[in-house]
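Letters spell out the chain; backbone shape is given numerically. Take this protein:
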Amino acid sequence: MPSAAGEIKRFAPPSGHHAAAGHVILVHGLLMSGHIMRPIAKFLAKQGFTSILYDYPTRRATVDEHGARFAAFIETEISRLPRSSGKLHFVTHSMGGLLLRSALSRLSPAACADIGRIVMIAPPNKGSDVAEYVLRNLSFAGRIVKCLPDLSSVPHSFANVFPEPDRRFEIGIIGGKYDLDVRESSTHLTHERDHLMLPHAHTTLLFSRRTAEQTRHFIVYGEFEHVETQKGEK
């Protein structure tokens, strides 16, 4: 199915995989495309999940406008899933987490009942100081990137005023210890189920096998595997 930005890519489990683990939608962040989520998508596919890369043109709309389109996509996906497939899970990166927050608020009760576990990677749930800095120093930036004001760490931004998901949604959050775009305190949600910091920067989190493994662990068990980070961790 095409999205506003192009074809939706899907990664199925390997032929002959012993069991279907479920479906996962992966959502990229600002100035990226679905391609950036491929490493995690392919890892999850090898673990038995059908991975769906949602792609959207990040600069062309506000977060809430993107969220409305994403909600419609989710409703369509849920309507097509066989009853035996279980719940629909999500993995987001950066602004993708805000898109999902917006979308969840729009879903029908029936669709909400089919939402599984959610892993947000480096989400600016309280905004980004980098977005605030850019807007403060380049006044025209918000006209070029329509969603940029939504990502700011100022108190009145979308990230800070839009209602957080309620406790019925099982959300795990992975932050980066070396993330210069979103500080740890900005990643948290009131009703998060678990939170984990990994030794990576904002984007390199997506290329870490540990991120992929922890993502799978939360989707399967509803919590991260809290073990001491080892030297040379990939």
User: Anything to note?
Assistant: The longest helix spans residues 63-80. The chain has nine helices and nine strands. The CA atoms of residues 87 and 116 lie 5 Å apart. The radius of gyration is 17 Å.
